[in-house]
């Protein structure tokens, strides 16, 4: 008698099923809303500095909605990775790219509002639509640059049973980097992502908000 047991997709945890449903619903909602916003910003509103910022921010959100179905497939098939090596690299790299783009865009918007409120003369003399578009292009370039290491590190491999493929970060680059160095590299990448993807933007946004709020209170007190 064959007593081996096989993992079937009927054994999917309830949490994964619920998360998949939420992802797919969010995907449909995000596609409709972000596409509508892009259409309004791109075709129904006059081009300005503000519309440029939000156009690129919403574009990054729209790209994220394209990733959601793949994340849903991964949740359903977890721990299996059935989408191959190229998608393993591409999906996670694109996820990092849109994350950095969204965070950097929000940071630039905060800096823009701070400059407009606290330094209006300088702002009107230096900022225009062309500069805003150039800054957005630089944001996308930085995001692509910062996510590029994950395209190299992300790999697929078979587990010991030779039937389950997983998608993971291989900081040894298939054995070309010693294990001790790979551990250090993992912490470097984690710190890099934490600082540039959260701590530094959060600090800039907080300072801009507090400075802008303080400037408004100061102007109001003069009257």
Automatic annotation (TrEMBL):
Residues 15-223 form the G-protein coupled receptors family 1 profile domain. GO terms for molecular function: complement receptor activity; G protein-coupled receptor activity. PANTHER family: CHEMOTACTIC RECEPTOR, G-PROTEIN COUPLED RECEPTOR 33-RELATED. It is a multi-pass membrane protein. The keyword Cytoplasm does not apply. GO terms for biological process: complement receptor mediated signaling pathway; inflammatory response; phospholipase C-activating G protein-coupled receptor signaling pathway; positive regulation of cytosolic calcium ion concentration. It is found in: Cell membrane. Belongs to the chemokine-like receptor (CMKLR) family. Belongs to the G-protein coupled receptor 1 family. The chain crosses the membrane at residues 17-41, 53-76, 91-111, 131-153, 190-210. Orphan receptor; could be a chemoattractant receptor. The gene is LOC121395512. It comes from Xenopus laevis. This is Probable G-protein coupled receptor 33. It comes from the Eukaryota. Keywords: Cell membrane, Disulfide bond, G-protein coupled receptor, Glycoprotein, Membrane, Receptor, Transducer, Transmembrane, Transmembrane helix. GO terms for cellular component: plasma membrane.
């Amino acid at each position: 008698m064959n007593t081996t047991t096989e993992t079937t997709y009927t054994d999917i945890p309830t949490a994964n099923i619920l998360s998949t449903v939420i992802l797919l619903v969010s995907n449909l909602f995000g596609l409709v809303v972000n596409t509508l916003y892009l259409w309004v910003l791109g075709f129904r509103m006059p081009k300005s500095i503000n519309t440029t910022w939000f156009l690129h921010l919403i574009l990054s959100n729209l790209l994220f909605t394209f990733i959601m179905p793949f994340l849903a497939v991964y949740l359903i098939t977890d721990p299996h990775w059935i989408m191959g090596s190229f998608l393993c690299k591409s999906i996670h790299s694109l996820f990092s790219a849109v994350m950095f783009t969204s965070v950097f865009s929000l940071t630039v918007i905060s800096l823009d509002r701070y400059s407009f409120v606290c330094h209006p003369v300088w702002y009107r003399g230096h900022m225009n639509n062309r500069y805003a578009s150039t800054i957005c292009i630089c944001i996308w370039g930085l995001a692509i640059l910062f996510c590029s290491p994950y395209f190299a590190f992300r790999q697929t491999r078979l587990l010991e049973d030779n039937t389950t493929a997983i998608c993971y970060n291989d900081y040894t680059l298939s054995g070309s980097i010693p294990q001790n160095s790979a551990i250090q590299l993992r912490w470097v990448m984690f710190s890099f992502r934490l600082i540039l993807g959260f701590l530094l933007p959060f600090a800039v946004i907080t300072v801009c908000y507090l400075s802008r709020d303080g400037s408004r209170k100061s102007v109001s007190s003069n009257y």
